[in-house]
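re: ur msg from earlier - yeah i can do the 3-amino-D-alanine complex, just paste it... oh wait u already did. ok heres what im feeding in:
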Amino acid sequence: MRIAVVGATGMVGEVMLQVLAERNFPISELILVASERSVGKEIEFNGKKYKVVGLQTAVDMKADIALFSAGGQTSLDWAPKFAAAGTTVIDNSSAWRMDPTKKLVVPEINASELTKEDKIIANPNCSTIQMVLALAPLHRKYNIKRIIVSTYQSITGTGVKAVQQFENECVGIEGDMVYKYKINRNCIPQCDSFEDNGYTKEEMKLVKETKKILSDDSIKVTATAVRVPVVGGHSEAVNVEFSNDFDVNEVRNILHHTDGVVVQDNLDTFTYPMPRYAEGKDEVFVGRIRRDESQPNTLNMWIVADNLRKGAATNTIQIAEYLVENGLV
Ligand code: 2RA
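and the outut:
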């Protein structure tokens, strides 16, 4: 496969290259793409050095698949050009996610919706992916009515400059401020900008993307997204109300048998998911599974995943693997 990585010098781009190598993705030719200022930069992949090229050069090279993580405007401007050249684009930005003509895919849930005609495929937001992967099998079994989610999101979700701000603060260096406030020893109840309804774009992604991926607009979702000084991954406290009652042990068993999910839930051994220990892994970890005793048919759980891996790079590459394995590219 001729593979282009668009945004190859960014945080997610670097993880995509790492995951491509780890999973031994079938690459006959690798095209590394970044902004004009990075053209000519050399990046090593699998022991070989590759020179970064610009976007138009990459379009002209007619990759089979282009893995995008280069921001929404670049996706809006360039994904159609890659698609017109015959390349299938899998995009990590929010640009195409809610477009009714584009598929929004978590492979374990809805890869079967994909066809050869899908030339621009949207990778969901990281905080959405980890939540819906755990909730999808429970929705099928018990029918979700409402989700209340509070997220505790890693600074890696903002990018390398946010990590630099955190590291500077830890050693007392006054450097560039990515966030409006200090992040060390703090929690910032704002991920991305605010919408007119008082929610952030991040919170509304959780609301809208969940309905699309689970193909059920009747599901009510409300979210509070918080930035925390953590690097390993995103954590989420999820309260979910079902139409039907459930047995907590049956819920654990369903999750235990769900592809991509690992249940870490044993209070006797203080076993529960934590971002420090999820870092670098591809699974979604679920624990603190317990009935919400304040209302019927309602469950609490704690969901953790590495936002750069299953939340972005790995999910993207799993979509690409599905396309290849099913002859869709
Ligand atoms: C964040 N999910 O965590 C967003 C984008 N990666 O900031």
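cool cool. The chain has two domains: 2-123+312-326, 127-154+187-305. ping me if u need the other ligands too
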